[in-house]
Amino acid sequence: MKLVFIGADHEVTRSCHYLEACGKHLLVDYGMEQGNDTFVNADLPVEAAQIDYVLLTHAHVDHSGMLPFLYARGFRGQIFATEATADLCSIMLRDCAHIQMQEAEWKNRKAKRHTGIEPEEPIYTMEDADGAIRRLVPCIYDQKITVCEGIEIRFTDIGHLLGSSSIEVWLNENGEKRKIVFSGDIGNINQPLIKDPKKTEEADYVVMESTYGDRMHPSERLDYVAELARVLKETFDRGGNVVIPSFAVGRTQEMLYFLRKIKTEKLVRGHEDFPVYVDSPLAVEATGIFQKNIYQCFDEEAMELVRQGINPIAFPGLKLTITSDESKAINFDDTPKVILSASGMCEAGRIRHHLKHNLWRPECTILFVGYQAVGTLGRHLLEGAQEVRLFGETITVRAKIDRIEGLSGHADKAGLIDWVEGFAQKPKKVFVVHGEDTVCSLFQECLEKEHGFSAYAPYSGTCFDLITGEVEYEAVPIPIKKKVRHISDVFSRLLAAGQRLLVVIQHNEGGSNKDLAKFADQINSLCDKWDR
User: Do 162 and 277 reside in the same domain of the chain?
Assistant: First the structure.
């Protein structure tokens, strides 16, 4: 039994952990990098075609976004996730593929003006996304599931996002039994719509996130409705728009919850009928999925509205834009308005067009309501950038840059500690991951010195033996000098197809001689055709 740390180690995004047990190869999450990649990430210990199962904590792309890439490289196993996560992934992975293909097309159009530049391939295609989605196995919260002989799992609501979960993994190999709990992203308490995180009672080993492991949310809970109403009134009085870069899944629906209350109670005097645009096809679809999962995932406050016949995330004046023409028309309307658009870190999607049209206008406000990773455009704006590049143009920042503090889907330091102290007995080891470099180290030290845990913050590539309880290989951090994009070139896809062929051959061991001979003849015939 081995646990290898691949991604989100001393970094916040690109979550991925590898498990080898009971003759099987498993991944827990396979996410996409967002923002700066600080350290070199280790490769998977085996080829994608050899991965048997993926266990997915939730649908955010820094946990799920590279699953289509895994499929493109030959993965044909099963992806276990909660029902709501499976629903969300079915739209989010397609959206990611669409963005990859659009960006590659745009760069290739630019490259035509120059000579000697190789065409760029998208990281993965829509076909790859569809292939990954077909591998999803929807699971119910709190139900123990047998994955294969010797491996059982259970999903527990962790309160971070609709369908988000911590995952309990029971391993039983040659009489040796171990239990590992992967926290996923631990949710903040008292969030609108979704339930608070649920604790787990026992584990031998815990792999837990530390995104906010060095900070506390405000001790007095901010009145988010009043704060949002203040920003709206000040901006509308100036004649400007409030542009909110918002994660299409989760944060957008929370903002709609607040905006419904503002509208109902007429809290923006003089502008009671202000329009609200949700300009993201993904957010529109995600909102439908939220409504589909009301009874499984909504908290008591939201359910009370539902029982009264009130939709918690809909109201008069809400406009959902789907087509690009509808999106473009928003910025040709002079009426002061709210524009909710993805992506939440301003790295891709329609939000960048809205920034282009509103950043230079001093009467407008760009309001941040979520975490901004290091190196993202959102982080640059929050840190006071005077100008930014968008679509080949330099845009001067004249709009007011504001944020609502404490509005987070992540538990703060106190919430993280409260969750890990929920175990009846202290685990043998707590692995600290999914935090910025210094945060991981500080939170590990806090767990050890202040709370008596045996904690360890591994770097990517570290291998831990779950039987002996010892680090088999301790990786050292390798800083990235230059950001290198992982390009899905055609030849690498061919190599991946070859690796998958080897896996398929191994799976056919023990077949009838007749079938094996036919298979061999087909392979040889293919080789004869292409051998150069």
Answer: no
